[in-house]
Design brief:
mainly alpha, Tetracycline Repressor, domain 2, 15 helices, 78% helix, flat
């Protein structure tokens, strides 16, 4: 009986792992930013359903991603213990589980929230599962393709409340989009060998150090610029302005150090950590300061 209980616990943990909980949580937080900044008010039940629908959508997409990449995951140290390469769950189960989550989420977002949110959710799903995931083995441009569904959550949050796309929502989309490029390029630098072994064509394997650093710096510049656009749109105030200037300046300043220090592993790992601090701190201030006007 005790062994059975332990087996059930381990299976539950593996099922939860399929949805990539940390990524799903980050998605809900960024979607909540779109909800928070959106003008007008929405019923709490609608907001709850929107968040649940978005979480199910992202979780389902992540499960399908694990299904499609089960062979690749076996070749990478950081992913070889996932439920599928570890042979603790069957491919059929994972495919069915992911399909079930998506089969619930899209109708939920479409019919209970609004058609636009459902359509954008479907677009993000298709671009992530059918375009980004297989493209990773074929072209380094997958980084930019994957950044589109990755940036969609705040847009979904905004449309859930308003039923339309507004400029502040597009700015939030742009912030997440440009943030992802230096963030994932940093990962690609200190995990380069793993990606090469798995046959994934990441930009850091195919471009020169100069081109990689150019992409990191230019996308960080773009991130710094678009983050300030929320000010003239009158959805944030002075605290956010200060945070965007300080955090963006620190992020960009460290990225520029790559010209002096070179693209070594220590620099890449610190850039990765700084990117996480940047996004967490910026959105924390956004929640407290945004949506007041």
């Amino acid at each position: 009986m005790k062994a059975q209980a332990q087996l059930s616990t381990h299976t539950l943990v593996d099922v939860v792992t399929l949805v990539k909980p940390r990524i799903t949580l980050l998605t809900i937080i960024t979607a909540a930013a779109g909800i928070h900044l959106a003008p007008g008010s929405a019923d709490w039940s609608l907001i709850l359903v929107a968040c649940v629908g978005i979480a199910l959508l992202v979780g389902g997409a992540n499960a399908l991603n694990m299904f499609l990449e089960r062979d690749t995951d076996l070749l990478m140290k950081r992913t070889q213990n996932r439920p599928l390469p570890g042979k603790r769950l069957s491919p059929d189960f994972v495919l069915g589980f992911g399909s079930l989550l998506i089969g619930v989420s899209i109708p939920l977002l479409t019919y209970y929230v609004n058609p636009l949110t459902g359509a954008l959710g479907a677009l993000s799903l298709v671009s992530y599962v059918l375009f980004y995931t297989p493209l990773k083995r074929k072209s380094a441009t997958a980084l930019w393709v994957g950044a589109v569904p990755g940036a969609m959550p705040p847009l979904l949050g905004w449309t859930a409340v308003t039923g339309s796309i507004g400029l502040p929502a597009l700015v939030l989309f742009a912030i997440i989009f440009f943030w992802q490029i230096p963030h994932f390029l940093a990962i690609g630098l200190f995990r380069k060998e793993e990606y090469a072994r798995a046959g994934i064509r990441i930009y850091t394997l195919e471009a020169s150090d100069r081109d990689i650093l150019f992409q990191i710096v230019m996308n960080t510049v773009a991130l710094f610029a678009v983050s300030l656009l929320l000010i003239p749109l009158h959805v944030t105030g002075t605290p956010y302005l200060i945070a965007a200037l300080v955090l963006g300046g620190a992020f960009l300043g460290y990225a520029l150090l790559g010209f002096r220090n070179g693209l070594n592993e220590e620099w890449a790992r610190r850039l990765f950590l700084i990117s996480l601090v940047y996004l967490t701190a910026l959105f924390t201030v956004l929640f407290f300061d945004g949506g007041s006007s």
